[in-house]
From TrEMBL:
<keyword id="KW-0472">Membrane</keyword>
<keyword id="KW-0408">Iron</keyword>
<dbReference type="Pfam" id="PF01794">
    <property type="entry name" value="Ferric_reduct"/>
</dbReference>
<feature type="transmembrane region" description="Helical">
    <location>
        <begin position="270"/>
        <end position="289"/>
    </location>
</feature>
<protein>
    <submittedName>
        <fullName>NADPH oxidase 1</fullName>
    </submittedName>
</protein>
<dbReference type="Pfam" id="PF08030">
    <property type="entry name" value="NAD_binding_6"/>
</dbReference>
<feature type="transmembrane region" description="Helical">
    <location>
        <begin position="53"/>
        <end position="79"/>
    </location>
</feature>
<dbReference type="InterPro" id="IPR013112">
    <property type="entry name" value="FAD-bd_8"/>
</dbReference>
<dbReference type="GO" id="GO:0006952">
    <property type="term" value="P:defense response"/>
</dbReference>
<feature type="transmembrane region" description="Helical">
    <location>
        <begin position="205"/>
        <end position="225"/>
    </location>
</feature>
<keyword id="KW-1133">Transmembrane helix</keyword>
<dbReference type="InterPro" id="IPR013121">
    <property type="entry name" value="Fe_red_NAD-bd_6"/>
</dbReference>
<feature type="transmembrane region" description="Helical">
    <location>
        <begin position="12"/>
        <end position="33"/>
    </location>
</feature>
<feature type="transmembrane region" description="Helical">
    <location>
        <begin position="100"/>
        <end position="121"/>
    </location>
</feature>
<keyword id="KW-0479">Metal-binding</keyword>
<keyword id="KW-0812">Transmembrane</keyword>
<feature type="transmembrane region" description="Helical">
    <location>
        <begin position="169"/>
        <end position="193"/>
    </location>
</feature>
Amino acid sequence: MGNWIINHGLTSFILVVWMGINIFLFVWFYFFYDLGPQFFYTRHLLGSALAWARAPAAVLNFNCLLILLPVCRNLLSLIRGSFMCCGRTMRKQLDKNLSFHKLVAYMIGLMTAVHMIAHLLNVEWYNNSRQGVYDKLSTALSNLEDTDSTTYLNPIRKTDIDPQQIPTYFVFTTIAGLTGVIITLALILIITSSMEVIRRSYFEVFWYTHHLFIIFFAGLVFHGAGRIVRSQQTTDPVHNVTFCKDRSDEWGRIPECPIPQFAGGFPQTWMWVIGPMILYLCERLVRFIRYMQRVTYRKIVMRPSKVLELQLVKSGFKMEVGQYVFLNCPAISQLEWHPFTMTSAPEEDFFSVHIRSAGDWTDKLIDIVQKLPEGAQGPKMGVDGPFGTASEDVFDYEVSMLVGAGIGVTPFASILKSIWYKFKESNPKLRTRKIYFYWLCRETHAFEWFADLLQVLEKEMEERGMGDFLTYKLYLTGWDQSTAHHVRVRFDQDTDAVTGLKQKTHYGRPIWDKEFEQVRKENPT
């Protein structure tokens, strides 16, 4: 339990607070509309669907305020920098920004469904009241004159067409109805294209449909301007609901029952979302400025198994270990930005990324680079970043265990290089005396560049008489008959048959209890 609290306590606390605010807003506004005396006559027409429409709207306002903040990556970097004095746990929450973004999106989807269903019922009941289907009071309320386009209660004013067509006419000719349809369609497209199967296989579909958020927010700002939910206004003399509800024939004829007056509520959604919209606009402006900054190629290397290494130089660029950048190549797409973990160390005068062929964008980039003449500069590249919480706390421990799996091994290239630079320079901030590195992957071909890095480190450490500084274990979790035969034939060689390293590759997965026990025995203090 103690470990769980250390690892997940703050995340859980933030989620509980977020869910608590959602529940509070829903309950508060539900009872506000379900019990408020100003909505007595409105409730008579709509019943509990009024509260069921308005309570989700309040929750939607709150979550639409939040949805853009987790994707303002430059804002998160600024906040992360100001949290340097705080604990890593606090800073690490910012790395869960996309998980929180998805969670908020699920809440928006759920509340939109409830809000929409309730309002569809409301339109139907408004129409029935207008046609005189219900009781005398409902008919009287629906027939109230619309003297200044403000005093009516029932927003359905048109009666000269087929009653069956009125709800459809109302939905597609009013501000609230039309913007509601547009918002819902945009949201459906955004959510469905965000499913993992589409995002991984058709990234462009996900990327471009996600930009429908512009239409979503524009519709959201104007949605409340229709003011279809109306409340009773105070008149002089006062219209006493308790006394007058059963005397609709006498409204305006006796002083105790003046004709009730109604007005729509002031639109509030824009007040919730205007701040995040301005912040996101600033975010896009910063990205554009960074995109315009010149990036030069120091070196372009085509590694085996279609892995492209780009060594880039950008004025004023500062990175830390374990961080990532977003790359944009206008020759492929003006809008698409893709994240790549940096494999260089902060001590180097350039930053590098290793790009594996894994989709349309990467395939096109590799194709462009392969066609370049010898020594030529690559295509124009926009760089945004660096982002992510740096892994510099690795340097705070005498013994560090690093575990990388598959493509997740890339940040460790940066960490291992940086540790080596610090060691060579006798950096006083480096406390590390021993590193255990575990690398698990299904096949090593796509990561031959990483094996080359380990080979260089292995050689340099032997030359300095520090062979014990780095203990690494490679685990191959997938192999075929040809690999097994290749290993059998070369089993008695000094170097590994798969990687060419002195450390032999293990097959299968690590037995972690044994590994932890071994590390504990070797480092008793």
